[in-house]
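Lab notebook, bench 4. The sequencing result for the construct came back, and we need a structural model before the next group meeting so we can plan mutations. Quick request posted to the team channel:

Model the 3D structure of this chain.
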Amino acid sequence: MREKQSVMLNIHVQTFEHGQPVDEQVETVPGMLYRKGKVYYLKYIEHSEEGPINTTLKLEEDRLTVIRHGAASMNHVYRPGTTTRGIYHTPYGPLHMETHTTAYRFKPLATISEQQGELHWAYYLSLNGNGVSDIHFTLTLTARAP
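Done. Here's the predicted structure in token form:
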């Protein structure tokens, strides 16, 4: 992979409550994948009802950091087997967020012949002290011509 690669992202989010699927969202957006040493950064714009959200995913070997700015904002670390806390800022006020990450794997675009990569992470989410749901994210990255 080059140091900077234009990609298309297929974002698939599944939400479960008590083991049962309750919501599913799929979105395809353009993005940029950067590499600095062993760390990858994936940048894209999410579209929500409240407005656009600039999203950066910092992908390290043992953790994922999600940084969002815009209609909603947060800076949260997901590390497998670990519970982490933060604040999710929404137009309706801040939410105290706690996540217990159950899965994380990232397969980058390793070579020019590998035109696809994948990011998957899953976590249990609590907001303001109340258990909410299990969330499963899968992002498929497809290289785009420069």
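The mean pLDDT is 91.
Will bring this to the meeting.
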